[in-house]
Design goal:
By secondary structure, this protein is of the alpha/beta class. Helix content is 32%, strand content 23%. Strand 25 and strand 26 form a beta hairpin. Helix 1 runs parallel beside helix 3, helix 13 runs parallel beside helix 14 and helix 13 runs parallel beside helix 17. The chain is globular and about 90 Å long. The C terminus is likely disordered.
Length: 769
């Protein structure tokens, strides 16, 4: 599915909340011709709030309570932009992003949740643990749990907030910590738990529900302090308004939340609490092209409490009104029900039900709640079932745009028009690089470069079709990939010419795609001080980017593929498995954490790795790309007339690679690469073979170093942020090129040198719009 072709309108979903996952599914089940749906999200896994107490109580695993947005967008055909929004340019209709250029929208929908309101309690930011946002809370919860398991760890736990969230958190956390204590033989009596609330617990629920939870708290030894306001948190505990001090080692906060900071400067209408003020159509009151749902929105005519149930129920109305607006039709009013059934857990498989004046409780209600929650999650977690149900045909008859798209011109008539091209280039900052006599600052028929005296030129060209839908990220990776051949020769890249291909679409959409492509390429090139001096743009069926790169090398110092000597150690600077992972991603089979990690590494330049390898005496070097690890190592051995032993257990793999390979996931190029199988001196299993011959994009450098210098080189590479490993050794040299052979030893390991997920992403400077 080409998600960029023939686009006339962009719907951007900001945030991966409960309402937006339904919008993704709704537009996948019934696509809107000419409409592209893009999800912009800070987190690639979104939690379901209804299952959070169960996660805290260890009744659910983290994965059971999260929706993988990488898999969901892959299955639904939406574009995923993994970035944090920091504001809006409403006049230009662009979303400002924190570490990259802004992206354009025609319609914008916001479902970003809420942030903790800590200002009312002194010391809350320093000494409290806020429950929102849920993603960061779960990380802090894991840290608190680890501390509590220490002999001298926290034992006195307090929760501030007596709503359903606070009560459930208190009971769930107590169940979790005491269960862990029992497993480790610790004394349960050493723990104490206190719930503090400024009003009555569960205000808004009937008295019988309130009494049921007062009883539940008392039976479990939780001290309840109602109608007592908290004014401060300190290192040693909680200070109340009446000057009472409650000893506490850890304090969790579930009180009122605040709107995200990004709303402040947008000029969008807000309610008294600062949340986006929306009408019954879910449109923000002062901007008909901006919608909002979930906790970040305030329904002006029909106010409702901040609850996940309303976000879930807003999903169908939001999807329908986005569809109506993009068609030019009038959106419909949505009025949420006044009362809803609340199923409140007690930290065990037991639930109290509350609706108006009704109340029920029992273990049977846990089974009901568990069935409801899991059924809802399956809609967005079971992407195979979703794909099976998706519509196979367009939802509308062919339009005039469709007819024009079938007759697009070729040759020079397929060039991107001067308007979109010039406007896209105008958004990029001018690159001031020594040696550029004439470049994009004054575009002409060709660039003029002044060569550096005493250097040889190193020239290479590469071209990639997009494998991720985000044009900025794809271009970052493509540019890094194109620089690798210069780095592999120990050269310094200086200048680049780009060939950018954008699918046919409305002029403004082509301009946006081209701008994102060039901005992504510039981000990667700027990190290595490489000037983008010109190029060519064209329409094509698929988004693509290529670079012709010119670099320099001191005469006599170029590093070739040949030159390996017996005893040399083989060093690899990045994990392998990119094609397997993205083959899985295209089929919605790859986990979000896997793709997040591999994209981080693929965007990492090999420039510093090249400099370190050269400094440590690399005799031969290449980059691992289309022919896979064995194919490119085989080229080095053939050029050197050598044999090598490959330590499979030391080969770093991207997370998920081995699991996917064992399941039969493979690149379409694998069958061609397997023709090089005669390089291996011993048979390996099918999964190992698929990984060793897996074609890599923006892969690592592979070098042969003198053994005595390899340890120092590995240490320097890892200190620079690379996942570097010694993966083998040259065993013989002086042979005929046709005698090249690789002897695989051991087996590939899932716990091989880890990918650097968790390290900072490559630094990017956003190009100004």
């Amino acid at each position: 599915m080409n998600r960029h072709a023939n686009i006339t309108s962009d719907i951007v979903l900001l945030g991966g909340g409960h309402a937006h996952v339904h919008v993704l599914k709704a537009f996948a089940m019934r696509p809107e011709p000419g409409v592209r749906v893009t999800l912009v999200t800070r987190d690639v896994e979104t939690p379901y709030s209804g299952m959070l107490p169960g996660v805290v109580a260890s009744l659910y695993t983290r994965d059971e309570a999260h929706i993988d947005l990488v898999r969901l967008t892959a299955a639904t055909g939406a574009t995923l932009v993994h970035a944090e929004a920091i504001g809006l340019e409403r006049a230009e209709k662009r979303v400002l992003l924190g570490d990259r250029p802004p992206i354009a929208y025609d319609l914008l929908s916001i479902d970003v949740g809420i942030t903790p309101a800590l200002d009312a309690i002194a010391g809350a930011a320093e000494h409290g643990i806020a429950v929102k946002p849920i993603g960061s809370f779960l990380q802090k919860l894991a840290g608190l749990e680890a501390q509590c398991m220490r002999p001298d760890g926290p034992r006195h736990i307090a929760v501030i907030g007596g709503g359903a969230g606070g009560v459930e958190l208190m009971l769930s956390l107590r169940a979790r910590l005491l269960a862990n204590a029992r497993e480790r033989g610790q004394r349960e009596a050493g723990f104490s738990f206190t719930l503090v609330t400024a009003g009555d617990i569960l205000e808004g629920h009937n008295a019988r529900v309130q009494d049921a939870f007062r009883r539940a708290l008392a039976e479990r030894g939780v001290a309840l302090r109602e109608r007592q306001a908290v004014v401060a948190l300190t290192r040693s505990g909680v200070s109340l308004a009446d000057a009472t001090q409650i000893p506490a080692d850890a304090v969790l906060i579930t009180t009122d939340a605040a709107p995200p900071p990004l709303f402040a400067a947008t000029g969008l209408a807000t309610d008294a609490g600062g949340f986006l003020a929306v009408g019954p159509t879910l449109q923000v009151l002062n901007d008909a092209d901006v919608f909002a749902a979930g906790d970040c929105a305030g329904l002006v005519e029909t106010p409702r409490p901040k609850s996940g149930v309303f976000a879930v129920r807003a999903g169908p109305a939001l999807a329908d009104n986005l569809r109506r607006r993009v068609r030019g039709e009038t959106p419909k009013a949505w009025r949420p029900q006044r009362r809803h059934l609340a199923l409140i857990t007690t930290g065990e498989r037991y639930v109290v039900a509350s609706r108006g004046r009704l109340k029920a409780e029992g273990a049977w209600l846990w089974r009901v709640k568990n069935w409801i929650d899991r059924r809802w999650m399956r809609k967005y977690q079971d992407v195979d079932a979703l794909v099976d149900r998706m519509s196979r045909r367009a939802a509308a008859p062919a339009s005039r745009l469709d007819a024009e798209a079938e007759m697009r011109c070729g040759g020079c008539a397929a060039k991107i028009g001067p308007g979109p091209l010039s406007r896209a280039l105008a958004k990029l900052p001018v690159s001031r690089t020594p040696g550029v006599v004439l470049g994009l600052d004054a575009p002409d028929d060709a660039a003029i470069i002044a060569p550096t005296d005493g250097h040889h030129l190193v020239q290479t060209v590469d071209f990639l079709r997009a494998f991720v839908d985000d044009p900025y990220v794809f271009a970052e990776i493509a540019a890094s990939h194109c620089l690798n051949d210069v780095f592999a020769m120990g050269g310094v890249p200086r200048h680049a010419l780009a060939v950018a291909v954008a699918p046919p679409a409305a002029s403004a959409k082509v301009e946006e795609t081209l701008f994102q492509l060039l901005a992504g390429a510039r981000a990667a090139l700027d990190r290595e001080s490489v000037a983008l001096v010109g190029g060519h743009s064209s329409e094509g069926a698929d988004m693509a980017l290529g670079l012709s790169v010119t670099g320099e090398v001191v005469p006599g110092s170029a590093i070739r593929k040949g030159g390996l000597r017996a005893g040399d150690v083989l060093v690899l600077t990045k994990p392998i498995g990119t094609a397997i992972l993205f083959a899985a991603a295209m089929r919605a089979k790859a986990r979000a954490s896997w793709i997040e990690a591999v994209l981080t590494e693929m965007r990492r330049s090999n420039g510093e790795a090249s400099r370190l390898l050269v400094a440590h005496g690399a005799r031969a070097m290449t980059d691992v790309s289309g022919f896979g690890l064995v194919g490119h190592l085989g080229e080095m051995l053939a050029a050197s007339g050598a044999h090598a032993a490959l330590d499979l257990a030391a080969v770093p793999l991207y997370r998920g690679t081995l699991e996917l390979a064992r399941a039969g996931t493979a690149s379409t190029l694998l069958s061609e690469n397997l023709a090089l199988g005669s390089l291996l001196g011993a048979e390996v299993d099918a999964a190992t073979s698929a990984i060793l011959f897996d074609p890599q994009t923006a892969g690592g450098l592979l070098a042969g170093l003198p053994a005595e210098r390899s340890a120092g080189c590995i240490a320097a590479l890892r200190a620079a942020g690379y996942v570097a490993a010694m993966i083998g050794r040259v065993t013989r040299d002086g042979l005929d090129a046709r005698a090249a052979r690789i002897d695989p030893l051991g087996t590939l390991q899932t716990d091989s040198p880890p990918c650097s997920v968790g390290q900072k992403k490559p630094r990017t400077e956003p190009a100004p719009a």
